[in-house]
């Protein structure tokens, strides 16, 4: 399921939150969020991911009513102005149900349908695409000294198990995406290892969604990148490596630059034209 010209799909991030790690509080109204989403589409986004609850480390949970009030006007406004696919980034089955009812095409769940006893059954009932992301712990505590004996094997095994659970509940195999969950209960070393060996996750046969845009791993390598807005170079390198390792879609803040980088990567890998001089 490649994007235009054979590159991975690009998912643009639309955070309707006051506290997301990179852009929290920037989109303070539904109209501002809708305008931002449409701008990302103009820049080349194939998907838009709308979220109303931050899942950054130590984030405070949001009540379902508040989350619905944040995301529903945005989804409704985007659907009215654009016919492309939208994902809802939520832990809550009730929010997923409302968003899909309004036109969203994917439930992007950082808990891999683990946060509620109703999540698996709701996903099966909705029949939409579902992204199962790996997270060790929960947002408030996930970065408190995360440890693994073998991060690659443990993340892959955990996601394979969640995919099996989803299918057993009635979710179609063709509807399932997997996300290794960079930064969700993982150190920078874990994140880099998962990126360098992303092909092992892709080998499970499910499309992989990869999200490293502006994340703190970049600062771990370049200590000067304390501001998330100063992490574009690192974000592009990670997106390109994920593409090379089999990611089907990358979730990013900087859509235009990512589309350009991925398009050039495809061009570089095409066979050279014969020399007719």
Q: Which segments are poorly predicted (pLDDT under 50) over 5 or more consecutive residues? A: 19-24
Q: CATH superfamily, called what? A: Dihydropteroate synthase-like
Number of strands: 8
What radius of gyration results from the CA coordinates? 18 Å
Helix content class:
40-55%
Number of helices: 10
Helix- and strand-based class? Answer: alpha/beta
Secondary-structure element series? EHEHEHEHEHEHHEHHEH
Outline:
The chain has 277 residues and is α/β, with parallel strands linked by helices.
Secondary structure elements and their pairing?
Blueprint: E1 9-15, H1 30-42, E2 47-51, H2 64-81, E3 86-89, H3 93-101, E4 106-109, H4 119-126, E5 129-133, H5 151-169, E6 176-179, H6 188-196, H7 198-202, E7 209-210, H8 216-221, H9 232-244, E8 249-252, H10 255-269
Parallel strand pairs: 1-2, 1-8, 2-3, 3-4, 4-5, 5-6, 7-8
Keywords, please?
alpha/beta; TIM Barrel; eight-stranded parallel β-sheet; 10 helices; 8 strands
């Amino acid at each position: 399921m490649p994007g235009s010209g054979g590159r991975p799909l690009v998912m643009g991030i639309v955070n309707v939150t006051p506290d997301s790690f990179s852009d929290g509080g920037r989109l303070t109204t539904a109209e501002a969020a809708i305008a931002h989403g449409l701008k990302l589409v103009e820049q080349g986004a194939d998907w838009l991911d709308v979220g109303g609850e931050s899942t950054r480390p130590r984030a405070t949970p949001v009540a379902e009513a508040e989350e619905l009030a944040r995301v529903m006007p945005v989804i409704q406004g985007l659907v009215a102005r654009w016919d492309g696919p939208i994902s809802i980034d939520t832990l809550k089955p009730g929010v997923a149900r409302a968003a899909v009812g309004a036109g969203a095409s994917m439930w992007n769940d950082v808990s891999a349908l683990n946060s509620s006893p109703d999540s698996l059954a709701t996903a099966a009932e909705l029949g939409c695409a579902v992204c199962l992301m790996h997270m060790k712990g929960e947002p408030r505590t996930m970065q408190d000294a995360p440890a693994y004996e073998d991060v690659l094997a443990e993340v892959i095994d955990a996601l394979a198990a969640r995919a099996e659970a989803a299918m057993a509940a009635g979710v179609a195999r063709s509807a399932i995406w997997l996300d290794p969950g960079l930064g969700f209960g993982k150190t920078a070393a874990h994140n880099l290892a998962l990126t360098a060996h992303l092909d092992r996750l892709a080998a499970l046969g499910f499309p992989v969604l990869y999200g490293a845009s502006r994340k703190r791993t970049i600062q771990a390598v370049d200590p000067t990148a304390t501001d998330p807005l100063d992490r574009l170079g690192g974000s592009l390198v990670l997106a390109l490596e994920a593409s090379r390792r089999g990611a089907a879609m990358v979730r990013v803040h900087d859509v235009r630059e990512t589309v350009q980088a991925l398009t050039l990567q495809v061009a570089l890998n095409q066979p050279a034209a014969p020399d007719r001089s």
